[in-house]
Design brief:
Layout: E1 4-9, E2 23-28, E3 31-32, E4 36-38, H1 44-61, E5 67-68, E6 77-83, E7 92-96, E8 100-105, H2 110-123, E9 126-129, E10 132-134, E11 140-144, E12 148-151, E13 157-161, H3 168-173, E14 193-195, H4 200-203, H5 206-209, E15 219-220, E16 223-224, H6 236-252, E17 258-260, H7 273-282, H8 286-301, E18 308-313, E19 330-335, H9 351-366, E20 370-375, H10 389-401, E21 404-410, H11 422-434, H12 440-452, H13 456-473, H14 490-510, H15 513-533, H16 538-555, E22 560-562, E23 565-566, H17 567-579, E24 591-594, E25 599-600, E26 608-611, E27 619-624, E28 632-635, E29 646-656, E30 662-670, E31 675-683, E32 693-700, E33 706-712, E34 719-731
Parallel strand pairs: 4-5, 6-8, 13-21, 14-17, 17-18, 18-19, 19-20, 20-21
Antiparallel strand pairs: 1-4, 1-6, 2-3, 2-11, 7-8, 7-12, 9-10, 15-16, 22-23, 24-34, 25-28, 26-27, 27-34, 28-33, 29-32, 29-34, 30-31, 30-33
Length: 733
Amino acid sequence: MSQRIIIVGYLMLAALFSADAADLILAENGKAALPISLGPNPAPDEEYAAQELARCLNALSGATFEIRKEPRPQQEYTLSLSYDPMLRPEESLIETTERQLVIRGGRPRGLLYGVYRLLDEKFGCRWYTPDIEVLPKRERLTLPSALRERWSPPLEYREPYCTEAWNGDWAARNRMNGASMRLGEKHGGKVTYGKFVHTFENILSADKEFEAHPEYFSWVKGKRLKQHTQLCLTNAEVQRIAIETVKRWIRENPEARIFSVSQNDWFNPCECDGCKAIDDAEGSHAGTMIQFVNTIAAAIEKDHPHVAIDTLAYQYTRKPPKTMVPRANVIVRLCSIECCFAHSFDSCSEQSNTSFMADLKGWNKLTKRLYVWDYITNFSHYLVPFPNLDALDRNVRTLTAHGVVGLFEQGNYSSGGGGELAELRAWVLARLMLDPRREGDTLIREFVQAVYGPAAEPVQQFLDLSRTAIRGSGEHLRINDGVVREYLSVEILKQSAALLERAAEIAAKLGDAKLQARIKRLQMPVWYTRVWQGREDFETVLKPSARQLLDAVRELKVTHLREHTPVADEIKRLELLVARRVPPPAPTQGVAAEDFAFRISHQQNLAALVPDELAEDGGAAWQPGSTREWSVAWDLPKDLPAGRTYVVRVRVRVDKKGEAGPAFHIGVYDTATRKGLGEARLQAKDVPHNQYRWYTVAEIEPRSSAYVYVAPDANEANVTAIYTDRIELIPKN
């Protein structure tokens, strides 16, 4: 294997170029001064580094850089790339004299990162998206002759976790090394997990082991749990099985360097006497977790010194223990799932953020291998605008300042991608992970100018509008928010649509199909939000938005509009909306909500939008009679006048088989006070079969934190289905 790549220039070529004595010239006037010379039998990553350097230098200068697989005399003008065992795995060193440029790197990725750092920081090369790179042309490529720069990434693990960031070439060029990225041998590999998070179920499955060994699983409120259980972490046999399981994982995945031993993705930690004693003493369920993980880490350390055990500080384990210290070969991955993302972690007064900052500081005192799992999308609505751009740079700076060495930023990870602003966030975060001192706003504007070109001005105005709206509203931002928000007002959406229509017109006049597709991705969140809110005129706004969104989803091959829900369900909803009749107008000075504006939970299983010729507009929200779930709801508008009383009524029909028992119940619930504001319960004998009727729920003074719900009463023997057509608020005074 070659230990060095050398770009060699002939002494005679120096005379061809006029240059300051202090400059080292690589190319001038379309002519290369230095051919690229590889030693014999180069490794794939070495050869790829040379190819990338030659390709980009050619694009920059117009000069052809020849690649030769032979060593060259060191006394010649040279540009040498070599591995250096004294450098860390991703560290690079760039040095120049009047005759030489030397790039050294540690294995496995330092050499390639050194090449990309040279191209990025010295020649302005950028890789904004997998298909948009900027290699700025210049007649003369030079470097100062007294350059010496040694660099290592501030984070050992860097992963924007969204579909658009998985392209291996994009990831390598932006020096990202995440486990999900398609980084191969030529890229120098990546951070590799043998098992990735929520692995208790992989260690011991309750479905397989509970009947024989209930003592392996969580003791909660006086009994062992089989469903939604965790492990009993103080049970000696559980510890033995976990150690043997992790050792087997390592044998099966010898290339992996991290194996996660972490809680299942729900609550119910064990409260047996042994576990409770440790957790009470440590003031956190992280006490038993760290003790358990430390036991496994100690057992594998001697035979596998390069392997680390990863665990989560998540939900019930987020708070650090008082005295329990993770071993050196343990990684703690702190999760920000509860936080507000409109504001930075350290500037938001919300308890979720202040407690996260306290936990961050606490874990920083306990471990030098602290990772963070952060969130950059709305998982209930991948396309709803998620204005977290103001917080991105400050959050990265805050995390790195408090000892974080690995960062995972989770967005829309579905196979079809297309999450709101996914490409922009991925690139901005990649730049921040390489240098947290960078200003987010500057990066955003650079991306917009490069990616949207002639249409950049209205696109930037659209982004600025969204950021101004969330600042003005003062609202907090969570990862499963609904679509009815002040920062997503009808007026804001109207202005957003107009700005993006301007951008689309510019792209259309240019005939630039790729630019048109990029702008269409920006328009999709506006169309989606308008449709899911259902607050604007049906014929002029909602129906056209649904049709445009439907066409875009198909054209751009989007697979998910929300986490875990295939797009086929959403397509049915859009097709139904496009085919609907015009609904009746809202009552005078009142408000009406058609079923397409309802919040539907447990789609297809416990609720769905369906065609219904008996409904006023040809569609309704269906629920089976077998459940009691509040799976159909409507969030009350936030802009109703204060002090006015409204009558809440709902238009419903049922399919009946009998007269006995309850039919359904409807009500109003306030999330702020956690109290009902009124409820009506209907008996089967009191509702007609297969006929719509209006049912009055309550008289209320509307609150922005309240919603109207409809729920069956688990009486499927007599009521097989419930259909909700419309909800109205009628002013009483």
